[in-house]
Known about the structure:
- The protein is an alpha/beta fold.
- It has helices spanning 33-40, 55-64, 68-71, 87-93, 143-149, 177-185, 219-232, 283-289, 308-338, 371-374, 400-407, 422-425, 497-513; strands at residues 8-14, 43-49, 97-102, 163-168, 175-176, 241-246, 304-305, 345-351, 362-363, 378-381, 390-396, 436-441, 455-460, 464-469, 475-479.
- The strands form three sheets. The chain has a nine-stranded mixed sheet, with helices on both faces. It has a four-stranded antiparallel sheet with strand order 12-13-14-15, covered by helices on one side. Strands 7-9 form a two-stranded antiparallel ribbon.
- The longest helix has 31 residues, at 308-338.
Amino acid sequence: xxxxxxxxxxxxxxxxxxxxxxxxxxxxxxxxxxxxxxxxxxxxxxxxxxxxxxxxxxxxxxxxxxxxxxxxxxxxxxxxxxxxxxxxxxxxxxxxxxxxxxxxxxxxxxxxxxxxxxxxxxxxxxxxxxxxxxxxxxxxxxxxxxxxxxxxxxxxxxxxxxxxxxxxxxxxxxxxxxxxxxxxxxxxxxxxxxxxxxxxxxxxxxxxxxxxxxxxxxxxxxxxxxxxxxxxxxxxxxxxxxxxxxxxxxxxxxxxxxxxxxxxxxxxxxxxxxxxxxxxxxxxxxxxxxxxxxxxxxxxxxxxxxxxxxxxxxxxxxxxxxxxxxxxxxxxxxxxxxxxxxxxxxxxxxxxxxxxxxxxxxxxxxxxxxxxxxxxxxxxxxxxxxxxxxxxxxxxxxxxxxxxxxxxxxxxxxxxxxxxxxxxxxxxxxxxxxxxxxxxxxxxxxxxxxxxxxxxxxxxxxxxxxxxxxxxxxxxxxxxxxxxxxxxxxxxxxxxxxxxxxxxxxxxxxxxxxxxxxxxxxxxx
Length: 525
């Protein structure tokens, strides 16, 4: 099979971007003309969900095509084991050049202690039921490793990627290859980064930092630069390629550099329609409402209550970060045109999870499965085929691996759990599924009114969002057609008892369908 028979891929992912924060998905203020142009020649998936609305778990789902409960990355802090097959490994074996530029987050990146505490069984080979191998095999994204050893040559292949430029963490304090490169550009990069070195501004939103890092040195520009260098390499003419272009923004802290800082006015942001609109708040939402407002610049990631004026500031700064990403995407797409690669390159755009960004007065993520955090943008543009402008088929991150492998004409591996979205991207239905399952296990303890960790399972179909919590005698049931803002929980409503019973059965069946089916048995017994 020649390279011309198989498409190239430029797969773009952002971090913590909700589905409605693009021009083409309806945001009334945000300008994203380049991403909109990709959507105009492809398909917008209106009902696309994160399989797990947290960074590491959902990225592991994307790479493995396995649910979080199967691939071992149940929560942030669990690394993706090397014994798990990834779709880039298959592509590489099929002759693709595979490259990663930006955020991987398949391994831990910080030096923070785990919020759930130390392993009570201690450390070493016999401290866990499943042995994923030596800890030193999983240090390529580790902040301390980079600090102690300087620029690192990552062992390749890295989860199937044959070339890698890592950007770890968030905002203007990104690490990995970006930090090493930044140190080559300026004498003292730390003098430009973080809240202590920020430029003057009048925002008082939590985690708003007007970075002194210039636009051309910021992480978004670095990821773009490395992607452009990859495309410019004459080797692109020799083999089909899969380029994973993964921007750390618009995840907080809010640090859009240069002109992107004040590109949007907080007063122009849309009305916050459901701040106090929930008619019967379930216990976890009520718990957050009773917490003090988040203030200050300290980094935190779980769901917080935020003042309305701060929400508007956070939205405006998020829009600035997204527009910077959009400008970078524009240059990457222009490079495809310049090199004559456009007609055989699938360009896709998505995010790993969303952000409440004002939904019910909350910001960030964690444990509450409102649409703003579980639903993400998904755009797929394949120039070789006719595509519908939009589809309402319910789909999820789990489906991306089989869809990519199908487009690449590569054999899927045994145990792959998603479904191929090719029929939906051609205007039909997705075979084999009418709903999606979303899993989450928080890596914080004793939050949202729960004792210990919060374990959540959500089922979403074309009408309902149904959510159950481990150990709780309550749950959530929302009619997304008649209550899209999720302001009335129908869990205890007598008129919807049969709906709840049916969804309970379907959730159980869905969970059972995702039990591990790999490895394939080589013998009868």
